[in-house]
Amino acid sequence: MSPYMVRDGTSRFADTKGEVLYHSLDVSSFTEYTVVDAGHLVKIDPAISPNKACLLSCGVSTGVGAAWKTAQVEEGSTVAIFGLGTIGLAVAEGARLCGAARIIGIDVNPTKFEIGKKFGLTDFFNPKETASVSEVINNVTEGGADYCFECVGMSSLVEEAFACCRKGCGKTIVLGLDKPDARLDIGSTDLLNNAKTLSGSLFGGIKAKSDIPALVKWYLDK
C-alpha cells in the first residue's frame, strides 16, 4: 500500500479533510475519476467498447494471463481452478484458449458450473460435498492436475491446490490475495522430491503494453 505515484513519489489523492488516500497495488481503480502515470497507460483499438475494455484492467487479464503467461498451460493438459469468480472464470477461458483438455472448477456455489461451461469448464466439484477436494481431484485425474490455480485468497486453498498438483511436473499458481500475515504449511519433501512448482502470479504475468492490446485483438477477432 502506498500513497505515491511510482516515479515521482508524490500523491494525487486525498479525502475531504486533506488526508492522503493510499493506493492498493498502485491501482485504486474503484473511482469515477483518477490520475494515472503516463507509464501505466496502454493504447488499445478504439473498436472495443469501454464497458468491455475495462474488464482487462484487472480480473480478466489476471486470469487469462495466469494460464497463458505464468503457467503456460499446454494443449491436452488438465487444469483445476479453486474459486470461480471473475479471475477463476478468466483462468478457465485462458486454459481453454491454450487447448486444455479438462478444466475442473471448484466452488461452493453450484450455479457457477453452468456459468463456467461458457468459459470451458468440463467438471465441477463443491467443497461442501466432500471431506477433501484434493483427494477427489487426485482420484478423478489419476494422479493430480497438471495445473492448479488458487483464485480466492485463502492459504488453506493454496495448500489444497498444491496437494492435488501432479507429481513430477505439476504447477500451482496463486492468484488470490490473502491476509498480509497469512502463512502456508507445505512440506519441503512434497516440494522438492515430488518436483512440484508453486508460484505467485501478479496481474497474470501480463506485460500490459504488449499483451493487453493482444487480448483486445483476440476479443475483437472472436
Can you describe this structure in just a few lines?
The protein has 8 helices and 6 strands, in the order ααβαβαβαβαβαβα. With 222 residues, it is of the alpha/beta class. The chain has a 6-stranded parallel beta sheet with strand order 3-2-1-4-5-6, with helices on both faces.
Which helices and strands appear, and what pairs or packs with what?
Blueprint (H helix, E strand, L loop, with lengths): L49 H4 L5 H12 L7 E5 L3 H13 L3 E5 L5 H6 L5 E3 L7 H8 L6 E4 L4 H9 L7 E4 L13 H5 L4 E4 L7 H14 L1
Parallel strand pairs: 1-2, 1-4, 2-3, 4-5, 5-6
Helix pairs in contact: 2-3, 5-6
- The strands making up the biggest β-sheet line up spatially as 3-2-1-4-5-6
SSE order in H/E notation?
A: HHEHEHEHEHEHEH
The largest sheet is:
6 strands, parallel
Alpha-beta classification: alpha/beta
Global morphology: globular
Percent helix range: 25-40%
The first-to-last residue Cα distance is: 37 Å
What would you say this structure looks like, in words?
With about 220 residues, the chain is an alpha/beta fold. Helices cover about 30% and strands about 10% of the residues. It has a six-stranded parallel β-sheet with strand order 3-2-1-4-5-6, sandwiched between helices. Helix 3 links the parallel strand 1 and strand 2. Helix 2 packs parallel to helix 3 and helix 5 runs parallel beside helix 6. The longest helix has 14 residues. The mean pLDDT is about 90.
Notable features of this structure?
alpha/beta, 222 residues, single chain, 6-stranded parallel β-sheet, 32% helix, 6 strands
